[in-house]
Amino acid sequence: MRRTFAFLIAAALAGPAGAVDGGRKPLVDFAAYSLFIVANDNCGDLHFDAEKLRLGMDRFASTMNWGEKKRRLQARAMVSDNQKKFEADSKSFCSSVQKIVGSYDKDGIRY
């Protein structure tokens, strides 16, 4: 399941449909950032700037015309789901995040 999720994020990054900002998709980026929030607290070798993640999620939500309430609800739901995935299999979760994080290095979200 986690490998499938990481694959879907990676595949979505490559696809042109619904893309904005040079081929990126805000919903995919929003979901990836929610992964990074959980990884930041739980995967020892992955360190992110939490404020940049929050600001990025705000930017992606704005691109999708989400209001503040929807952004908070979606973020809370995605982070909660990712936390459950981490708790179910921490090694697999961290490995999956490690595989996609390189796609986001240009965002400057890592320490």
Question: Can you put this structure into words, describing what you see?
Answer:
- Helix 2 (26-42) crosses helix 4.
- It contains five helices and no strands.
- It is globular, with a radius of gyration of 13 Å.
- It starts with a helix and ends in a 10-residue tail after the last helix.
- With 111 residues, the chain is mainly alpha-helical.
- It has helices at 2-14, 26-42, 50-63, 68-88, 90-101.
A few lines on this structure:
The chain is mostly helical. It has five helices and no strands.
Strands, total number? 0
Unreliable stretches (pLDDT < 50, length at least 5) are 11-20
Average pLDDT rating? 85
Measured by DSSP, the beta-strand proportion falls in under 5%
Radius of gyration: 13 Å
Structural class: mainly alpha
Largest sheet: none
How widely separated are the two ends?
A: 28 Å
* H/I helix tally: 5
Reading the helices and strands in chain order gives HHHHH
What helical percentage do the residues reach? Answer: 55-70%
- The geometry reads as globular
List keywords for this structure.
111 residues, 5 helices
Write the layout of secondary structure elements.
Layout: H1 2-14, H2 26-42, H3 50-63, H4 68-88, H5 90-101
